[in-house]
Amino acid sequence: MSEIKIQMKNISKVFETEEMETHALKDVNLTIKAGDYVSISGPSGCGKSTLLGLLGLLDMPSGGEYFVEGVNVSSLSLNEAAEVRNSKIGFVFQSFNLIDEISVFDNIALPLRYRKDKLNTQEIEQRVNKCLELVSMTHRSKHKPNQLSGGQQQRIAIARALVNEPAILLVDEATGNLDSNTGDQIMDVLDELNQKGTTICMVTHESRYADRATTQLKLLDGAILTTPELTSCSALQYV
Amino acid sequence: MKHSSYQLKQAWAGLSVRKGFLVTVVSTLGITLGALLCILTLAYVVIVKPLPYSNQNNLYQLNANLFNDKKEMMAASFTYPSLIHLYENQSVFQQSALVHYGEGVISSLPTQPRVKSTFVTPDWFKLVDSKIEMGRLFEESENKETFNPVAILTYSTWKNTFGADSNILDKTILISGTNFRVVGVLSQSFIEPELNGVGIKTDIFLPWDYNPTNEQVRNSWGQIDQNRRFVGMLDTDLSNNQIEQSLTPLVSDKWQENVAGVEFFSGWYIEMELLPFKKAILGDSQNSVLLLLAGMIGLVLIACANITNLFMSRTAEQHRQLAIQAAVGANKSHLFYTLLAQSGLLVFLSIIVALFVANAGFWVLQHYLEQRMPRVDELAINAVTLGAALLIALLLGLFFARLSTSLVNYRALNSVLQSSGKGTGIQVSQNVRKLLVVSQVAIVTVLIFVNLGLARDSLKIINTPMGFETENITSLTVSFGASGEFSEEEIAAMLAELKSKFKDLPQVDSVSQSLAPFGFLGMYAQTIQATQERMVVETRPVDNAYFSMLNQPLIEGDFFTQSDVQDRNLLLIVNDVYADKIAPQGSALGSKIEMGNSEYTISGVVKGIQMPAAADIPMRAYPVSRVTRTWFMLKLKPQQRLSREQVVSVLEEVNGRIDLMELGSLDNQKVQLLFTQYTTAITSVVLAVLTFFMASIGLFGVVNYTTQMRRFELGTRLAIGAKRADLIGLIVKDNAGAVGIGVIVSVLILLGLSIGFSESLSSYITLQLIPLFVSTLMLIGIIVLYACYWPLRPIINAPPIYSLRNSE
């Protein structure tokens, strides 16, 4: 049986303002195992990005329990959460989120600089180059992100997400800012990574990309829909 | 015009909904520009503005500089006969006058007010363009040796002391036993040249003949009095040097001729010095004004840097609105005028506030620095102030408008609308941000360092032990009617009775018939008999109770006894500095000192005392005081006070013709002597604190802006695992370079100042400044750390999703 990478139990997220409460997620249960390729899709405002934010420990749930590789991370301090993000999670953003002032190499190396167990320069170089190779961007390592095309920038973002060898790669609308051709190329990269063993959880609103995932989840009004086709998905447990 | 009015209305509408921005800019700029306008006006009055006399360039005070045989200058004043000789025999000055500054009591008024009386010859009023409110000025019939007792009141004396009595003319007032008939009141617009010291103003002008110089001094060629002046107007093609050379023999030869029989003055001579009125009145105050001006400019620069930052944020905020204007056809110059309307309105409002602040500053200067800064009573909003205000307003308005315009990328405005308003599109360049940090750090380091240095020096002087006690000691001086009204025996008897009555007062613990240590010291020519060395020594006659009352320590010998005072024994107590001069190897006790044709024996040595703000302890000698001295020191019992009325009532019990000239505690006198140091300490600390806070706000603003601009990047870093400490370190590191450059620039500025003002600053530049500079850097470090950390708090203390989401 495959190792469980991610497990959410009854996770909810409520956004409160002075006037109202908005239930963005309601009792979400989710399990992702090693090697899974999960897509989350749904209409705008259904809670996709909120769910991905919680999965990536970018935000904290209002209720429920969340485990990463068996460790309960539901109520970590900000610094502890940062450490988990750094070591266990790779995040790919829709708008790439690269830092324009530093080179491609340094962008990819950035997560390594925040590691608890520091690496030496040689190790950093090896890891960054390996990731650059994975996304076929070795020749652009000295460039600045704003000298690259959107697709190239997203490849770099993927490389940065992988550099710490995370337990899971979380991808938020990775093709949202790209034309269809470039988007396809990025999806090819993700497919290839999954084939090589990387666990991926991806948010997308494009069904043709969602279909590439081995497991497809649909969200509506903050809850995962129970559909017949989903039950066949070994990676998913839902209530 | 119509369009301008529309733009101003639009600008006001925009600003009125951003009250925080409006109030911050107007108050910061208003207060700092107000302070600048105040000091700028002061600088104009002190440095540029002509004196209010039509012949101001030709008016001079003539000094007689007395040199000893070693060519050391011993005094810069006339002996009485020298002054009269010069007045009667000189032919260089077209017009000249004699002036004697004195004090008296108007005994004919029930309150017996103490007044500053100035004794002048008639031409004095012509020299300084005196105008009258009523009556007349002195005439030839009131010239020297006419003994015509008339008086002219100044406007403020007429108003405050005589209640603006419209029938004051021909009334008589009794001063020092003489009835003077009032013949005139000076105009309110008359400004007296303050030749006797800053802020010292005459209350009543009296004829020269009545100056309170006694007969002995009037005929003495060896006694110098600093209260006398010779002033005149030149109308000649000769240079000042030529005039000085022509006058020197007139005075010096006559003086040498008259002191030829006095061995002490052998080899001494006089050199005349022409001092322009402006220099005599202003002294070295121009440097103080320039330093104040530099400090104020520094503060205004900090304020402008802060406001620049606010304008950048405001422009970023307005970007979408500007984009809409561009979309409907506004070109670049339209946008410039839109932004100029806003900055112009803000600067205009700030200038209005600034003029009020400047006016308040004038009031403060006139009330608190009247005795320290010349011509402050001439401060008022004038054409220079208004001109400077308008110029500053114009420059700042244009600068802020130009700055805001430069931040707007006109070509990229469309993309703002196309991206549905996401992102501001405005990024202030890193260089501009760095420049702001560098300038703030450089200015604040210099200002805080200089202010802390000034405060430290002032506090050091204030806290320097004087070597004697002042607590509960009150000094008073009395006078006995007109000169010659009482015989010496009568005065001695009345003083003895007074002393006894003072002792009997329940508040009084002990009495000394001596002048308080802060009072004027005589400079006496003395010769050490053993070595025949001649010198001029500060000399203060004291009685048997003086030293014990002040708790001034006796090193060897004895204090005077009651019988020493009664018998007028020729004994001398000297301080340790003088004793070392008299007998460098052994004891000075028993040594003989010749003074005024008498031989004194040293009977005691006391520890030297240091006067407040004095640089060192000079040689001092204390002979036995005569019983006719009209000075007292009263040691009061703890918690006791003695009012002027109580003292006057004691004086009246003895004799109604005794006037109370002066009454005050030694503690107050000490504070007055240290007024400059207290003012400097308070002002510099206030300026340092103000600078610190303004810099904190400014640096916070710049770093906060930078941090907000980097919110998305910081969120990304958090998302990939950066911890709080990582981000704090990142922001500190990113600003450290600019801070370092700022510190280097400040060091260069300080070095430039120390080289440029090396003469006046030489005594301040010591190794002790290093810890002070380190302390300043630590303060700057605290500001920078605060400025780096505080804006980061909302980012690092919340889950990263907030930074990422809010930035999109």
Automatic annotation (TrEMBL), chain A:
GO terms for cellular component: plasma membrane; transmembrane transporter complex. Signal peptide: none annotated. PANTHER family: ABC TRANSPORTER ATP-BINDING PROTEIN YTRE, IMPORT ATP-BINDING PROTEIN. SMART domains: AAA. The keyword Transferase does not apply. The keyword ATP-binding applies. This is ABC transporter ATP-binding protein.
TrEMBL record, chain B:
It is a multi-pass membrane protein. InterPro entries: ABC3_permease_C (IPR003838), MacB_PCD (IPR025857), Macrolide_Exporter_MacB (IPR050250). GO terms for molecular function: transmembrane transporter activity. Residues 24-245, 442-641 form the MacB-like periplasmic core domain. Signal peptide: none annotated. Residues 296-365, 686-799 form the ABC3 transporter permease C-terminal domain. GO terms for cellular component: plasma membrane. It is found in: Cell membrane. Pfam families: FtsX, MacB_PCD. The chain crosses the membrane at residues 21-47, 289-313, 334-359, 379-401, 435-454, 678-703, 736-757, 769-792. Keywords: Cell membrane, Membrane, Transmembrane, Transmembrane helix. Belongs to the ABC-4 integral membrane protein family. This is FtsX-like permease family protein.
